[in-house]
UniProtKB/TrEMBL annotation:
Keywords: Hydrolase
Signal peptide bounds: none
Organism expressing this protein natively: Spirosoma validum
CDD domains in the cross-refs: cupin_UGlyAH_C
EC number from the UniProt entry: 3.5.3.26
UniProt GO MF annotations: ureidoglycine aminohydrolase activity
Every Cupin type-2 domain range: 70-105, 170-236
Keyword Hydrolase: yes
Keyword Hydrolase among record annotations: yes
Protein name, per record: (S)-ureidoglycine aminohydrolase
SUPFAM superfamilies tied to this protein: RmlC-like cupins (SSF51182)
Amino acid sequence: MEISALTRSVVKRNHAVISPDGYINSRVPGWDNCTVNVIINEQMGAHLCQTLITLNEISVLTGATLHSQLFFYVVEGRCTATVGGETNTLEKGQFVYIPIAKEYKVDKPEPGTQLLTFHKVYEKLDGYDVPPVIFGDAANIEGPTYLGDAALRLQVLLPDTLAFDMAVNIFTYDPGGHLPFVETHIMEHGLIYLQGQGVYMLDKDWYPIKKGDSIWMAPYCQQWFTAMGKEPAVYIYYKNVNRFPTTV
Ligand SMILES: NC(=O)N[C@@H](O)C(=O)O
């Protein structure tokens, strides 16, 4: 019997673990007939927003990006996305990056389709154009070993050019694989586990983590992870990148 008074979710000054056992649904204007869980947001101290959307056959998402760019990733299922007049079917593992000043529509979903979104206010860099719309497929993106450790593979989904101020990567750890050192860095992360389990150390606290769990790590939140279990642990994560680290 589940003890309703207990949760694995934790929200702290510089990190949060959000497990599905604490989800409450939100209603978002323009995102009709769907279930939205706002998992990470500025209200908790983050500089990004991360949501998980569950669609049914009559769900339709419409909107426009004004100040914030938007990244949709298909966690489960299939749908159709139209951005800037280009329409594509998106299957599991496929995504669309929507820069600022674009209208978008997501519809014709397979019932039960789950979409992950990352939102970040875009910081324009002088001399660089706003990035284009990008439709992509994680299955077509190489996952070279991370820092020479064959147990770790990192797929970088978006072009790493200075026009982009955000990155979205997929990190795969074989069972027993672990980050080579405790990271302490300025970049912020929002992530969700697509597969597997393990233990995440965040700011000296230790959290058992599994598929479906999300984590927010503020800038300089010390972080380390090791994968456990019989299958690789896989998470997709957001990272702010490529901007001057302070006011010039
Ligand atoms: N936590 C974590 O995955 N961090 C790194 O991979 C990184 O890209 O900062």
